[in-house]
Design brief:
Elements: H1 3-6, H2 16-31, E1 38-39, E2 48-49, E3 57-64, H3 69-76, H4 80-95, E4 100-110, H5 115-132, E5 135-143, E6 151-162, E7 177-182, H6 191-197, H7 218-222, H8 230-233, E8 242-245, H9 250-254, E9 263-268, H10 276-285, H11 289-295, E10 300-306, H12 308-317, E11 322-329, E12 336-339
Parallel strand pairs: 4-5, 9-12
Antiparallel strand pairs: 1-2, 3-6, 4-6, 7-10, 7-11, 8-10, 9-11
């Protein structure tokens, strides 16, 4: 490197020219998600969104990333799916409060700028926004040489609900029914354990091979996108008392957030189908049942708590919803129980 090159941003690992060249394409992607509520859609320092008419609106926000599923995506070279996952998992989280998404923002940071990877991620994010019915109104793409070994990804969603329509776990009572909505697979949680049991860091070629009990190659099975529950559940929120998005921590870790202090959720093992990928993970790593249920969704991506009438309406409106248990009086410390019939 010549002396004249040392004092430049490019020499430090950040290409402003490359980033500037993508701005118009990113705006074009975002515009695919815009409706009349998006103001000044041309970009700038901040996005603007007109909420419309609400009597007593409550804003509901969430932020999250796709975890080390991102590393598996990089090994496979498939990024659209995790871009879509990024939107979906955040929208699912605000849905548990009874909120519908308004707008989304993304944050992508690269050690070395990768135009192809960024474009695939943006395509997936746009797909996720269009499915959920929210607008992509801004974001940040950064180069951080020396900070990450590769890149990182995070998302932020803001939604809204009328105050009197917010889901309220305090009304949950013994006798209420647990209605499970199936997951599509591993979703976006537990991938550090997944990578360990399949030894993917040392043997990424396993991702491209068939695995006993799976209909697809291991990598294809792991990259099945995180199921989006907003389109199917939003019309039925009036039938639901509480919702739990079953992510990291599994049923034991996530259900308590939907329960008042005096009750517990009792699940019937065998009342729902567990996707074959979980059996493959358990056998490959000799993982205990307890650990599987503590880490993974085990086939239930969302669990609704409903009274009898609400449960009937929900199961009539969602074809694959299934009765998986009941709310019972809490006895002892356990907030989540399993019984074997």
């Amino acid at each position: 490197m010549s002396t004249s090159q040392v004092g430049t941003y490019e020499a430090a690992g950040v290409s402003l020219d490359a980033m500037d060249g993508l701005k118009d394409r990113i705006k074009a992607f975002a515009a695919l998600t815009h409706g009349p509520e998006v103001l000044d859609g041309g970009g700038g320092f901040a996005g603007m969104f007109a909420m419309g008419k609400y009597a007593d609106p409550v804003l509901v926000a969430s932020t999250d990333g796709v975890g080390t599923k991102l590393k598996v995506a990089a090994q496979l070279g498939h990024f659209e799916g995790v871009g879509q996952d990024l939107v979906t998992l955040n929208v699912n989280d605000i849905l548990t409060k009874g909120a519908r998404p308004l707008f989304f923002l993304d944050y992508m940071s690269f050690t070395a700028f990768d135009e192809h990877r960024l474009e695939m991620l943006m395509r997936g994010i746009v797909w996720g926004c269009r499915e959920a019915g929210c607008a992509l109104i801004g974001g940040e793409t950064a180069q951080l040489p020396g900070v990450y070994s590769d890149f990182d990804l995070a998302g932020f969603v803001v939604g809204v609900a009328e105050r009197d329509q917010l889901l309220n776990p305090n009304v949950v009572m013994p006798g209420d029914r647990l209605i499970g909505i199936p997951s599509s697979g591993v979703h976006t949680n537990g991938f550090s354990l997944v990578r360990r049991v399949f030894n993917l860091d040392e043997n990424p070629s396993a991702l491209f091979q068939p695995w006993p009990g799976l209909e697809r190659n291991l990598g294809d099975e792991l990259m099945v996108r995180h199921r989006g529950y907003c389109p199917m559940l939003a019309p039925h929120l009036g039938s639901i008392k509480a919702l739990s998005h079953i992510t990291g921590g599994g049923l034991p870790g996530k259900m308590p957030a939907s329960l008042p202090a005096g009750v517990a959720a009792e699940f019937r093992r065998g009342s729902w189908d567990t996707p074959p990928i979980f059996d493959a993970i358990q056998k490959a790593g000799n993982v205990s049942d307890e650990e599987m249920y503590r880490v993974f969704n085990m086939g239930l991506g969302m669990v609704a708590v409903c009274d009898e009438g609400g449960a009937t309406a929900l199961m009539s409106g969602i074809s694959d919803a299934v009765d998986v248990g009941r709310i019972v009086e809490r006895q002892g410390e356990a907030r989540v129980k399993f019984r074997g019939d």
